[in-house]
Write a structure and sequence with these properties.
This protein has 2 domains: 3-19 and 230-415, UDP-n-acetylglucosamine1-carboxyvinyl-transferase, Chain, CATH 3.65.10; 22-227, Enolpyruvate transferase domain (UDP-n-acetylglucosamine1-carboxyvinyl-transferase, Chain). Helices cover 31% and strands 25% of the residues. It has 14 helices and 23 strands. The protein binds uridine-diphosphate-N-acetylglucosamine.
Length: 418
């Protein structure tokens, strides 16, 4: 298993280019089930999750061909095979095939994903949405079996805002008979970009970007080409890296309108930056002030930036609190950060952080994608060497992180294990 070795203390400087969004491209790839044919997707990030989903789509008869950051998808031969556990368990987003398979073929079998590193992650809202659209859903030896044709448009009010359930419901509703209204729909940019892709495929969706999506079902869709939006979480991670190391870094290709809550938190923490047309220029080095931040659905502060913000606050002075409202158990990075000299106490869904101003390198273990990012950030400012094991987590969602950081002057290397 590969690991990352980081020597702390280097000040980052230069320009880093942001890759396409992982959470945007995954549902878009699944949407190609809805209309057989050829698609070209641009700005596709080179990530393990994209490779995993491509493998799953191959089992459904969909071929993908990569040329750099362009992915050609041919769904001409799509068939409603079962999405098996061996792939679904490695990536929960695989459940995004449920809505499109059901809408297109009237039947879908998808292995039920298990929990994840930060606790149970139910998909009951996905299943209830399919039922509301008229499907019969049952659990068959660990596999979701859903059938119903045609799906019938309806009103669904989500009790909590869910990115995945909204995406799945939209992809099911676009081919349903009549109108579907989704209340308390997720407003994340990745959902809006999925809706825009579906509209380019011929879907009729109103209210994109709002909490109410109105979908008028159509008889059929057609292939379309698209360019994947930039990854706001990757951008936020590099902004924190720059702030932490006192760097002078230009984050290029990010969408600051997707980053408002992250930028507001950084500004409150005293980080200085300038936004200018597609670039965010950070001038780190100032004192980091303590904060109280709660994670919330978009446009609130994203749970996917919580671990990285924690490293930043740890490196500052004073007492901070982060309340994790989305995934209350998502604190697996805390004991690892504490091993590096951090002072973080978790009580319920709150993490209380005492700024220690300095960290020490240590061997640490990545437990999930964003937790590993927080450890890399900590390694960049810790004294001595930090060795991060289980780095496959970070490869799921950060394209060539060690190359990008090394390009900014960070001292970071991948240690390959055969
Ligand atoms: C997506 C993102 C993930 C991000 C999360 C929250 C992808 C591939 N992943 O995950 O990176 O951290 O949004 O922004 O886009 N819930 C239920 N029942 C359900 C579904 C969700 O109770 O059926 C709950 C979850 O436990 C959580 C909340 O709803 O408390 C939000 O989760 P959700 O938005 O669905 O997260 P994902 O789509 O899994």
């Amino acid at each position: 298993m590969d690991s990352l070795r980081v020597e702390g203390g280097a000040r980052l400087a230069g320009t880093v280019d942001i890759s396409g969004s992982k959470n945007a491209v995954l549902p878009m790839l699944c949407a190609t089930i809805l209309a057989p044919g050829e698609y070209t997707l641009g700005n596709v990030p080179l990530l393990r999750d994209v490779t995993t989903l491509s493998s799953l789509l191959r089992t459904l008869g969909i071929r993908t061909h990569r040329e750099g950051h362009t992915l050609r998808v041919d769904s001409t031969g799509v068939v409603p095979n079962e999405a098996h556990y061996d792939l679904v368990r490695t990536m929960r987003a695989s459940v995004y095939v449920l809505g499109p398979l059901l809408a297109r073929f009237g039947h879908a079998r998808v292995s039920l994903p298990g929990g994840c590193a930060w606790g149970p992650r139910p998909i009951d809202l996905h299943l209830k949405a399919m039922e509301a659209l008229g499907a019969a859903v049952r659990l068959d030896h660990g596999t979701i079996d859903a059938s119903g044709a045609p799906l019938i448009g309806t009103r669904i009010d989500f009790p909590i805002s869910s990115v995945g359930a909204t995406g799945n419901a939209v992809m099911a509703a676009v081919l349903a008979e009549g109108k579907t209204v989704l209340g308390n729909a997720a407003r994340e940019p990745e959902i809006s970009s999925l809706c825009e892709f579906l509209v380019a495929m011929g879907a009729r969706i109103d209210g994109i970007g709002s909490g109410v999506l109105e979908i008028e079902g159509v008889a059929e869709l057609h292939p379309a080409d698209a360019v994947v939006i930039p990854d706001r979480i990757e951008a936020g991670t590099y902004l924190v890296a720059a702030a932490l190391t006192g760097g002078d870094v230009t984050v290029r290709g990010a969408r600051s309108d997707h980053l408002e809550a992250t930028l507001a938190a950084l500004r409150s923490a005293g980080v200085e930056f300038e936004e200018r047309g597609g670039e965010i220029v950070v001038r780190g080095g100032g004192e980091i002030s303590p904060l109280r931040v709660e994670t919330e659905p978009y446009p609130g502060f994203p749970t996917d930036m919580q671990a990285q913000l924690m490293t930043l606050l740890l490196f500052g002075r004073g007492k901070s609190e982060i309340v994790e409202n989305i995934f209350p158990d998502r604190f697996k990075h805390v004991p690892e950060l504490n091993r590096m000299g951090g002072s973080i106490r978790v009580e319920g869904k709150s993490a209380f952080i005492r700024g220690v101003g300095a960290l020490t390198g240590a061997p640490v273990m990545a437990s999930d994608l964003r937790a590993s990012a927080a450890l890399v950030l900590a390694g960049l400012i810790a004294s001595g060497t930090t060795r991060i094991s289980r780095v496959y987590h970070i490869d799921r969602g950060y394209e060539r992180i060690e190359e990008k950081l090394a390009g900014l002057g960070g001292r970071i290397w991948r240690v390959r294990r055969s």
